[in-house]
Amino acid sequence: MKPTTTRRVAKRRFPTLAVLTWLYVLWSLLPVLIAARISLNDGRSRSTFQPMSFRWYWGDHQSSVWYDDSLQTSMANTVKLALLCMLIATPLGVAMAIGLQRWRGRISNAANGLMLLPIVTPEIVFGVAFFFVFSQVYTGFPSGLTRMLLGHITFTLSFVVVIVRARLAAIGTQYEEAARDLGASRLQAIRLVLLPLLAPAIFASVMVVFATSVDDFVISSFLSSGAATETVPIKIYSGARAGSTPALNALATVMLVLTLLAVTLAACLARWANKRGGSASGATAGFAGLTG
């Protein structure tokens, strides 16, 4: 087939794929946009559109996000749990992925299978299991945010391991072996060569852990110890059952904006780090550090 014919076929197929992709994106975003629009209602209805105002953000001195202490507490708890989970689960997951990649034998195969259990097991099972474990076995852990954090870390750790191990399988061992041949120690090879190559997978793991922790409802609801430790999903669920105001929509919109800002900031930092590395990036930068 001639190159011109190939380009024509690509042009014919691309619009269809693009249309399907954008239809899916719009279909996924439509409920979010509707919820955000209802948060701007001037009235108390959560089922119909009303004249727009910022009453439920900061206008109402009793029920708005700016003045309601319970809404602010739930938002602070959610952000705190997500950040701590991200800072703890990601390094642990990266270390476990590297260790499992180098572990050989029957026990290693069993360990690899166990790492997939949190992903394939229904989250409700994990929530009930965590509840009984902390109430009957590990009773020394403080109730509330500490137990919720341990539950989030345990649940999200597998996602980090799976993502990083996939990247390790794609990279192979040749770069690390070349670094060892140049005189680097094992730790130097990991720090200067392997970790830069794992940067995309680590970044993806951070985003997955953050989003999973922010969105989690089941585990948080089983391990929460009351109103002081409620997260945004728990607050939205309990408020929706009690006939709430659009303030909950405003709270969810604020969390959505904060999450998008965090993702955008992380992407900008990753791009800045790549530009700072110049043309010597990834393994090349590591080898330059070893031989320089």
Please explain how this structure is put together:
The chain is mainly α. The chain has one domain (60-291): MetI-like (MetI-like fold), CATH 1.10.3720.10. It is built from 14 helices and no strands. The protein has helices spanning 3-38, 55-59, 69-102, 106-115, 117-120, 123-137, 145-171, 174-181, 186-197, 199-215, 218-223, 232-241, 247-277, 283-291. It is globular, with a radius of gyration of 24 Å. The relative contact order is 0.13. Residues 278-282 and 284-289 have low confidence and may be disordered.
Give the full name of the CATH homologous superfamily: MetI-like
Taken from the alpha-carbon principal axes, the silhouette is globular
Beta fraction of the residues? Answer: under 5%
Please identify, by name, the CATH architecture. Answer: Orthogonal Bundle
